[in-house]
Specification:
This protein is an alpha/beta fold. The chain contains 13 helices and 16 strands.
Length: 356
């Protein structure tokens, strides 16, 4: 089969690899229909995630069809159309028993495209299939469903829920890329008074308005002052970091009010300064997190009911065999306007031309 293989920082290729097979009785093999590229994949290609060994197939999000299952799999069978979660859960360890699937100690957690071969391939082996894939409604489009493998659960759990967004809050989202836009969408479910989006790219700030931001600010033009003006000098109740660079994290700590929450979602490849000399007296709560995906069934129901703007995040689609081109478009988002790229599925003949 063909797959997108990491060969070291700055080196990757769409190439022939052996077909996956069931290794454990809890495994399933999925024929991939749709995949997407995550910002974390770009971090891997830059060398920011050293645990990923050369020779690993990348990707941790997919929609596809079950083609084979191990003898212990009970909830899905060959022919079922499923969402492959970015998090694998053994279901038995201390963390899984508490819903902390991202910290699974039984061989799960974030392993696809990280510690084992991932989803950016024609087929993928999924361990612990009973808890790690989700059957999909027949009517749900693959390009919409694949966004529920990672981006929406991550934004919702690590950003909105960890940040304790409440009715009447002022919420600032730093970074209006896909994670930030999904955070804006899901924060709106809790009726905040206002949502402010901060980014460097005018196109992404415009997208933030379309997804529900009440105000936007260029990160180079004193967003701290805008937040202060909107809140009578108090600052934001919740600030969601959705970039993953030191400057964005430090901005979050400057715009949050005393007693507020900073929810870090971004994947950081370099240290950020924690100004405890200023923060210690302000009762600030700072959270970090890897998504657990406990919210995926709820989000799937909401998406099926049309309550989540999944389709609007997909700006470019490609056939699966144009993986290298899709990475180029996604990696140059400032030039291409890419939010999410989806490969495979039904829509690539319509939208791929916009990648040029």
């Amino acid at each position: 089969m063909k797959a997108f293989v990491f060969h070291g920082p700055g080196q990757s290729a769409w190439e022939d690899v052996p077909d996956p097979a069931v290794k454990e009785p809890t495994d399933a093999v999925v024929r991939v229909d749709s995949v997407t590229i995550c910002g974390t994949d770009l971090h891997i290609l830059k060398g920011d995630v050293p645990e990923v060994r050369p020779g690993t197939v990348l990707g941790h999000e997919a929609v596809g069809e079950i083609v084979e299952v191990g003898g212990d799999v009970r909830t899905v069978r060959p022919g079922d159309r499923v969402l492959v979660s970015c998090i694998t859960a053994c279901g038995r360890c201390a963390y899984c028993r508490q819903g902390g699937y991202g910290q699974c100690r039984g061989g799960g957690g974030w392993i696809l495209g990280h510690l084992i071969d991932g989803t950016q391939a024609e087929y993928v082996r999924v361990p612990y299939a009973d808890l790690s894939v989700h059957p999909l409604p027949a009517a749900m489009d693959s390009a919409d469903a694949v966004l529920l493998a990672d981006i929406f659960p991550t934004s919702y759990e690590v950003g909105v829920l960890n940040g304790h967004v409440r009715p009447g809050d002022t919420v600032v989202v730093v970074g209006a890329g896909p994670i930030g836009l999904a955070a804006i969408s899901t924060a709106r479910l809790f009726s905040p008074e206002r949502i402010v989006a901060v980014d460097l790219a005018p196109a992404r700030l415009e997208a933030a308005r379309e997804f529900g931001a009440d105000a936007v600010a260029d990160a180079r033009e004193a967003p701290e002052q805008l937040v202060a003006d909107l809140t009578d000098g108090l600052g934001a109740d919740v600030v969601i970091e959705a970039v993953g660079v030191p400057e964005s994290f430090e901005l979050c700590t400057r715009v949050v009010r005393p007693g507020g929450h900073v929810a870090n979602v971004g994947v950081h490849g370099a240290p950020a300064t924690l100004h405890l000399e200023d923060l210690w007296i302000r009762n600030i709560t700072i959270t970090t997190g890897l998504v657990d995906t406990y919210s995926t069934p709820t989000l799937l129901r909401m998406a099926a009911a049309g309550r989540l703007p999944t389709s609007r995040l997909v700006t470019h689609t490609f056939p699966l065999d144009r993986m290298e081109e899709a990475y180029d478009v996604f990696g140059r988002a400032a030039d291409t306007g890419a939010l999410k790229v989806v490969l495979g599925g039904e829509r690539h003949d319509v939208v791929a031309a916009s990648a040029a």
